[in-house]
Design goal:
By secondary structure, this protein is an all-alpha fold. The protein contains six helices and two strands; from the N terminus they run H-H-E-E-H-H-H-H. The protein has a two-stranded antiparallel ribbon. The longest helix is centred in the last third of the chain and has 36 residues, at 77-112. The model has no long low-confidence stretch (mean pLDDT 91).
Length: 138
Amino acid sequence: MNVSQLARHAGTTADTVRHYTEIGLLKPRRNPTNGYREYSHADLSRLSFSLQARALGFTLQDISTLTAESEAGQSPCQHTRALIEHRLAEVEARISELTQLGARMRSAMDQWATRPDCEPDHEVVCGLIQSWEQGDHG
């Protein structure tokens, strides 16, 4: 398979295939006649695995590590569990941060709903932001 055929079979873009090849996740052979990359069914399996892992929040470095473990004959499953636990904790922390940001934004919108626009001067850039009272959201 060439780049575009592999991309089509995996449901991704040719740019993704090229990038994954450049970073070593895919290892096509070179056609000796024309020098083009030729991808195997093993490359398709690895690409599909990589796309699934990305959908679960694994980084490309994580995926590279997991595939290297597998190629070395070691089961990467225990490492996979530890990684996803770590990624989930990061996501949950980020969700909490975003929830707090959303509350601050709602507070600002509520405060600004009845305030008039102000003219900028040498000390005031935007009076709305500078007059915002954080209250319990800060």
